[in-house]
Amino acid sequence: MASASFVKLNAASSSWMGQKSSLGKRSPGSSTCRVSFSTRASSYTDELVQTAKSIASPGRGILAIDESNATCGKRLASISLDNTETNRQAYRQLLLTTPGLGEYISGAIFFEETLYQSTTDGKKFVDCLRDENIVPGIKVDKGLVPLPGSNNESWCQGLDGLASRSAEYYKQGARFAKWRTVVSIPCGPSDLAIKEAAWGLARYAAISQDNGLVPIVEPEILLDGDHPIDRTLEVAEKVWAEVFYYLAENNVVFEGILLKPSMVTPGAEHKEKASPDTVAKYTLKMLKRRVPPAVPGIMFLSGGQSEAEATLNLNAMNQSPNPWHVSFSYARALQNTVLKTWQGRPENVEAAQKSLLVRAKANSLAQLGRYSAEGESEEAKKGMFVKGYTY
Ligand code: 13P
């Protein structure tokens, strides 16, 4: 991880690709011979930029359905269904065959199992998405494990074999990837945990781009804790500074990435809740200080906010123009009502699909800054926060 600032050609633009360094040449009168290197051109650069742009298109955002089998099992258990492959397939089929979904959804993130699945009629899920002009994506991290030497914090696994897995996912139709690591405010966060999170995200991003996948960069700052919003701002600024430092060190093309930040809010157990205007003010302040305008899209996670809250906060952030597309990549805040409406019954599929469209449309309007909470159901207002949530 030694500093390699001399190789940071111009990571914020794609012009670094294929440039040859002159550092290998012996300068006249110099007695030191420095190591020669060249940066490798990626054949995918134009495609990455195009993919990122199409995901970050006006009025659209991402449907995240990349719950691991264990997490999907918890969702299914909440409606008394067993965690079988058949039930997971049936649930994902319901979501992915919703007619008209592509009007509001530009990308969908799969867990590996889903990428290789088809509908009961034999149509690949990837093709269901393509027909709606939705880009298929894939969760590539291998989950969180304890970080030795830290304050009960964790680190995210998955770099081993990532290049070959990514190449396979590309062949299967995926065009973007997601890697979620977490930072806990009540646990510090320690400098070690932040550095590890940032370095892992940057290595993953470089490997994804090298294999044609647009990386979603997601250092989730967990909602857990009773801290005020100013403390979240301070931690978020530190985390994103470190993330962009290492993204640049790894020559990641900023035009070909998407971010998935947490909104800047008080801790879930803090005595006061923040209004959408306050959340928007803090979150945009943080992002404007840390995220270059070369990045095409900011796709927020919902992190345990209620469906209505996540939509209201997004809407507040789109009341004036931003340097990037500001949108959503929600899992819980798009799926909660759907799951409750479905209850695992075939006769409820249509109603459940309609409820997905209601949420997708609400968030689409919020992306355009035109959402009103009038007429929202009581269900949509219920919080979904779970302490120490894993994915
Ligand atoms: P939530 O919107 O449920 O926080 O999802 C987070 C996530 O990383 C999904 O891909």
Please report the total strand number as a whole number: 10
Major sheet strand order: 1-2-3-6-7-8-9-10
Strand content: 5-15%
Helix proportion range: 25-40%
Total number of helices = 12
Examine the coordinates and then state which fold CATH places here, giving the name of the CATH topology: TIM Barrel
Task: Sketch the topology as an H/E string, one letter per element.
Answer: HEHHEHHEEEHEHEHEHEHEHH
Oligomer: single chain
End-to-end separation in angstroms reads 28 Å
Q: What are the bound molecules?
A: 1,3-dihydroxyacetonephosphate
CATH architecture heading: Alpha-Beta Barrel
Main sheet characteristics? 8 strands, parallel, barrel
Count of structural domains: 1
Arithmetic mean of pLDDT: 90
Shape: globular
User: Which blocks of ≥5 consecutive residues have pLDDT under 50?
Assistant: 1-33, 37-41
Keywords: Chloroplast, Glycolysis, Lyase, Plastid, Schiff base
Family: Belongs to the class I fructose-bisphosphate aldolase family.
Protein name: Fructose-bisphosphate aldolase
GO molecular function: fructose-bisphosphate aldolase activity
